[in-house]
């Protein structure tokens, strides 16, 4: 089952020009599933970087903005798109010129993967 999911994710990675990594983690940044190209910088897939997303969504809710569903950060050479599917966080790493809309459109396609990983996290 895990190999089928990885193959599906690798196909998605190859279809979107500039997408370099799809990473599923728990809210602490612990990696559960990852597919990537050789171009992805290691610093953006470290648990300490990923876990800051949960801090950011908590701060947003304290400001009365409601539940955060997505967070997009664009840097000089990369963009990071994170989706809140608690207890799962999906992180996409892409080049700065990758189409962000294409990444956001993947949300529904990945719901089945999130369901499998959520049940796995709940069991442990």
From TrEMBL:
Belongs to the LAMTOR3 family. It comes from the Eukaryota. This is Uncharacterized protein. InterPro entries: LAMTOR3. Pfam families: MAPKK1_Int (PF08923). GO terms for cellular component: Ragulator complex. One of its GO terms (biological process) is positive regulation of TOR signaling.
């Amino acid at each position: 089952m895990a190999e089928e999911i990885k193959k599906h994710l690798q196909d998605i990675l190859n279809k979107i020009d500039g997408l370099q990594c799809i990473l599923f983690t728990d809210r602490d940044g612990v990696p559960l599933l990852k597919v990537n190209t050789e171009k992805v910088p290691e610093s953006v897939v470290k648990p300490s970087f990923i876990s800051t997303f949960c801090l950011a969504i908590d701060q947003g809710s304290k400001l009365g903005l409601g539940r955060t569903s997505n967070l997009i950060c664009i840097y000089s050479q990369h963009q990071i798109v994170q989706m809140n599917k608690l207890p799962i966080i999906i992180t996409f790493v892409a080049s700065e010129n990758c189409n962000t809309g294409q990444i956001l459109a993947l949300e529904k396609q990945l719901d089945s993967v999130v369901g499998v990983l959520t049940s796995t996290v709940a069991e442990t």
